[in-house]
Structure formats: structure tokens, C-alpha cells
Amino acid sequence: MWVFVGALLAATAVHVAGQQEGFLSIDCGLDAKFNGRRDTYTDIAYVSDDPYVDGGMNHRVAAKFDVSSRSENRRTLRSFPSGIRNCYTLPTESGGKYLVRMEFFYGDYDGKTSPSFEVHLGSNYWDTFRNSDFWWSEAIFVAWGSWVPVCLVNTGGGTPFVSTVELRPLLPSLYPQVTVDESISAFARKNLGADTIYRFPDDPYDRFWEWEVSSLWANLSTKKTIQREDSFAVPIPVLQTAVAPVNNGTVLHVGTWNTYKSTFEFKFFLHFSDIQNTQLRQFDIYLNDYEWYKKYSPPYLTADYVYSTGWYKATEGTYNITLAATNRSMLPPMVNAYEVFNRIPHDTPRTSPKDFDTMMAIKLEYGVKKNWMGDPCFPANYRWSGVNCSGVTANTTRIISLDLSDSNLTGVISDNFTLLTELRYLDLSGNSLNGPVPKSLCKRSAGSLIFRYQSDEDMCNKTTISPPLSKNRTAIISISIVVPMLVVAILVVACLIWRGRRKPKISTHDPPREPELQSAPESRKSNGDQLQNTENRRFTYKELEKFTDKFQRCIGKGGFGLVYYGRLEDNAEVAVKMRSESSSHGLDEFLAEVNSLTKVHHRNLVSLVGYCWEKDHLALVYEYMSQGNLCDHLRGKNGAGETLSWATRVQIVLEAAQACEAEDCHWQHHHGGRCPPWR
After folding, report:
1. Does the residue 481 lie in any domain?
2. Does some domain include residue 497?
3. At which positions is ATP bound (predicted)?
């Protein structure tokens, strides 16, 4: 389907200096020691490419091409013999619309054959350079961040190179079809009826309007002023010329294109402005054999256009545009200019713009020279060294890991690292960094960030040494520590004295009995008999495997062995302590603890839910304490809750002593005063 739009807005004249505002013109291969240069024909200022690219080599074209009559843009170049992907990173304004153009003039700089390679816009395919002596390619896009990379990708067809890279800001009203999720590449742009190439300053956006002639065309022209429209802003000189079929024919063959890539999809834009209004000019527009637009009449001395709203792909890869006069038309069909664009699909995901901007800030601050070019995460085989990324959401990904160890970084630890809000791992060890660690770096991650700095130690999850304190603060803190410790010591001594008084007295006149010697079978019960009367559940090893999901989540480690998280049939949470082979606790200690904890019940003792005794598998199943372990609470480690007050710590000591007393009393009552094996 075609759309017809008539525009009656007059063109606005703007000074050349204003039109050039925001232009970035890079002369690839220009020595950085020069301050840049001015183009002879356009007066546009060109700069060296050193600040925008890493790697590559500067060259001049062969002597036969390196002559003063040739534009400076085509006398120097940069080649990239190493690395698969090499990129220029261009500064943009997020949400702004831009035209980017790359020019390539081979000029026999290396005495070989002109190569072939791909050109990418961000992480997506843009175009292919195919063994030409000279070629240029333009793309129009909406910037998705503060930096947009354009890349040369070595596909095995020779060493990639480039002569110039040019970035031009566009008004938001231009090319309304272009969005942040869909870019376009200029396949062709032609100025018809003239023998001049127009660009800046005739085109304030510095587009290339190449001329084209044909023996089948008759040239038309006018000196009259033409009203320009703002959707495409075709330059006035381009609209002042046109072509029609020779000999007042009724059919005008505008052009034929053959695509080298079967996946290309195209949009066609025809630009019109009639130079007479005395007779009717009316025609139909065809693409191949399909009638796209019927009975079109171009307006007099006013810019207008017809374009395809959808993307078109011909099965055989050949495209023809034909204009055929209607029966009512008194004049032959005509056209002033045309543009053909192919779609740059954004099929490949890209790094979150915020993360990309942050990584560029880190790169520039420390002068990182690795392979940090293009998109940090995509395509995956070109991912930046030391960078790992999350899964894709809404076609973007986040940076979750950054390893900059041994990267010759100097200076302070940048606050920019805190802007990588999804970062889970950061390694800055092996560098010459100094100064404090930004407080927000660890605080922002709430303990989830593993941060290595001066060694392999995690700086975000370690106990730090406080700086020296003033005398007053030192005295206050000393008192606050010593006094509670004295209280605890007094309470412990009092508890021991009280326990000593409760012990049964042994008569000195009653000599101790000689133990009766019995054979081993008569001196102890069988192991099975010792656990027959326990109240707790006896689990099988397969049950424990099921409840712990095959011992997937380890939550601790002790002298007995590793402790695993589990969930029973009724969803009750448990901690399963499995005896390891290296444990010093034998079967006797295991049986004693099962028997003891079965009989002892105290509010400050963890309850025993059950046990497992199956061949070599010994396990104790306790109720699960979801708030973490006491050690972490006492040390105030991240994620274990608030730091405990001294009043709370004293309370813990007392209640722990009460639990130990209950446990010891039970043991001594049943075992003649001997110490329990777990002490």
C-alpha cells in the first residue's frame, strides 16, 4: 500500500554554521598529532579517529591515488588486521535521531585485493562491503543510549578498513518510520535530471544525493523556488530538476535494483515537485508488476512524496519501479528523486543503555584497552573481556559480573561501579588502586555483591577494622564492653556455685564399689535395642535424599559433618546433619545424642525431629532455625539482621547456660556424673 501526502510548508533558511552544529566528522587514519582539518568542498571540520576507536593501523593510499586533486577523505584510512570485531564508539543523545555514514576507499593501500567484510550498527547487522574500490553506506537510527557503536566485522574475506565515519543529528520529524526498535540503511539515493552530487551545505543534514542519467530519460529543470516539506526535507536544488520519458513517452522506467542478500526487505520513497501547471500530469506507480498507487498528480512547485508503508521483499531479488501515464494525462510521468532503504532488524539483544553508558565511563576513566568495543554483551561471541551478563528481558540484558583483575588500573575506586545496579561480582584485585571503597558499592547491593579488591577476600562481606578513636570515645566503648563482660562472668560463677551445691554428696566412709567385670555381650545392649524406645522418627536414607532434594542446599558445617536444608511431607522445614567420614564422632556419641535429645526438652534447645541409622549413613534431623546462626548475629554480619545490643547478648548467655544445665543434668542423672560426649 502507498501513502500520498501533500505538504505546503515553506522551507526555512538557516545559516551554515547552525546547520553544522552537532556534526561529528572522523578522518580515519589522520594522525592524532594534527588538530584536524577542514574539508575543501564542504568546509566541514574533520578530526582524528584516535579517541573513538581502539586498535587498528593508520595508512595512506598508494602514491598514484595520494594526489592533491583527490579529496582528503580518500587519502587516509585505518585498517584492522587483528581482532574479529573492531568498533567506533560514537557519542549520541539517548532518543535522538541520527544519520551515520561510513566511507571506504581502498586505494591499493596494501597492494592486495580489496576485501569483503560486514558492517554492524550496535549489535545488529547493517551492511556488507563487497570488494569495491569505493563504497559508502548510510544508516538512520534513533539512539538507544549515550553511545552507539558502529563496527567492522572480519568475515574471512580480508582485512577490514574504513576511510571516514560521519555522524549527523536529524530532526525528530525526519523519516518518521525510524524508531528506537527499527533502523534503516540507504540502499540508493538519487538526484535525477542533474549531473551534480549534492550534500552539505545544500543538504543541511549532509546526505549524499548522487546523480543518475539514462538515455531513456529527458531532463527537466526550473529556477523557481520550491516549497520544501519537513518529513524528508529534500534539498531545493534536488527538487528543481526531474526526468521524464524521452519523446513524451507514456512510461518512465525509474530504476532496477538487484539485491545481493535474499533476506533484505525494502521501502521505496519517490520525491516529486512538478515544474508546470498548465496541463494535467497523472500516472500510476508500479513496483515490479504490482500497482502500488493509482492516479497520482505531483503538486506544482511544492515538495511531495509517495512511499511504501510496509516492507517489501521480492522472491527473485529484483526490483523495478515504473510510472505509467493514465488515459486522462496530457503530460508524461516525471520524478525528481528517489530513495531506497533496506531494514536493519534489531533481532540481536543489546546491553541495557544505562549499563553500557556506565561501562563506557569506566573504560574512559581508567583507559581500559582490552577488547572493549561495540556492545558489551552481544553478540555473545564478541562479549567484552571480563564481562558476564544476565538473561534477556525485553530484548536487553544487564551486566552481572565484571572482572578487572590485573588490568593495570590506577587511581581511586570509581563511583561508576555503583551504577551497575545488577552487579553480583566485582574483581579489582591485582591493580594499583588506592583510596577508600565507595560506601554505596557494598551498601547498594545489601550484601549480595562479591567484591574483591586488594586480595581474594570479599570486601563487602568481611569484618573491617575500625579507625582509631578519640580518647573519650575509647573510654566510653571500653566501659560499655568491660561492664557487661564482668556481669556475665559473675553470673557464670554464680551458676557454677549453685550447680556445685546441688551435686549429691558421696560418703567418705562408703568405699567405692569395684566395677563388675562382665563379658561384652552382657555389659551393653545391642545398638538396635538402644534406640527402640526413642520418641523420634527414624528416617531412611532415601527419605532424607527426597526431603533435601538430594542434599542440594548446604546451610552449614560442624564437627559431625555438613548440614543440609530439607522439607518434610507436611512442608515442615528441617536441618539434616549428615555424619562425614572424617568426623571424630563415632557410633557411641551418635547414639548418646539421639537418646539424650529425645528425653531432654527445653525452650532454648533445638528440638530433634528424628534420626537416620542405615548401614554407614548416620544423620540427625533437627527443626530448622530460619533466622540464621548465632555466630553471624553476634558478629553483626550482613544479612543476619541488626547488630545485637549488649542487653540481648547477656540474655543469650544466660539462656544458653540454662540450656546447657538442662542437658548436663539429664546426662549426669543417667550416666553417673560423667561428662557428655558432645562437650
Report:
1. no
2. no
3. 577
439 annotated ligand binder: no
Do residue 166 and residue 189 come from a single domain? Answer: no
CA dihedral 88, 94, 97, 100 (to 10 degrees): 0
Within a 13 Å sphere around the CA of 333, how many CA atoms are in the beta-carbon half?
23
First and final CA of the chain: distance in angstroms?
88
Task: Kindly state the helix (H) or strand (E) to which residue 357 belongs, with its residue range.
Answer: helix 353-366
DSSP state of 417: G
Range of the domain at 253: 173-346
- Encode pLDDT of 118-171 as tens digits: 999 999 999 999 988 999 999 999 999 999 999 999 999 999 999 999 999 999
Taking the C-alpha atoms of residue 303 and residue 190, their distance in angstroms, rounded to an integer, is: 16
Among residues 283, 314, 346, the one where a domain terminates is 346
Give CA–CA dist 520/461, Å, rounded: 53
The 10s digit of each residue's pLDDT in 71-85 is 888 899 999 999 999
Tell me which residue of 27, 50, 28, 29 sits closest to 38, measured CA to CA: 27
DSSP for residue 509: T
Strand runs labelled E in 259-297: 266-272, 283-287, 290-296
232 and 311 in a common domain? yes
Q: How far apart are CA 140 and CA 342, in angstroms?
A: 11
Domain boundary among the residues 401, 417, 452 is at 452
